[in-house]
Description:
The complex is a heterodimer.
Chain A lengths: L2 H21 L3 H25 L4 H31 L13
Chain B lengths: L2 H22 L5 H21 L3 H26 L3 H6 L4 H25 L13 H10 L2 H23 L4
Helix pairs in contact in B: 1-2, 2-3
Amino acid sequence: MSPAYYLVVSLLLFLIGLGGVVSRKNFFFILMGIELMLSASNLAFATFSKMHNTESGQAYILFIMALAAAEACVGLAIIYRLFKLKSTIAVDMFKELKG
Amino acid sequence: MDILIEKYLFYFFSALSVAGGLLALTRKNPLHGGLFLIVSFLGLAGLFSLLNASLIAVMQVLVYTGAIMMLIIFTLMMINMTKEEIKKERISKVGLIASIFLGMLTFKKLVPVFFKNLGYFEPTKENFGSIETVGMELFTKHILSFELVSILLIVALIATIVIAKGEDK
């Protein structure tokens, strides 16, 4: 298999995640889209790591995973507080700061 | 590994991850979305193991499907959305059209570049991607980043507790 195939899968996953983040109005789907985009970038890192025959890419994947975990738990805490505040998690209900 | 088997496994796992991701982000109910996202992450773990990254494949299953998705589903059940609210769920048409357009454009421009410039994988060195070699890489070359990640995790832990607890009344 050529590395190009893996990169195409990575690109597809990234674009799916981007579409989800941009078009959904539920906080959970936005968070899931971000997770999907981060995993897609992980796949690209792993592909390049194998292509260049060095493990640096895989060390970066571990850092990205730690970052994704940190981002998910802070994001979920924010979702929890927002739901306590307004009993909804639709993003267009939170417009107070809109100028 | 046999080339043909690798090819079929690649198609299987990539179809699993792409279909899972696509289904996950088009569901109305966030719980169904989370369960499909787990399927997608399992497919990605398979792709990692095809890329000789065995440690990463295990970490993908442990961290993403085990920890992150469990946390998302746990929070989802804790905040208890009503059925009406799930039914009311709308998508932004402008965002959808813009992302489809942008996606097609990116796909059209990038995919020929991938296929033109990237050749084949060279044979990997012995125990490439095993826990030993990745650990050596992590604790020698990237030791500073490793320590910074531990600080990041502590900060995230404290921030989560402070945010979720709310202000004292």
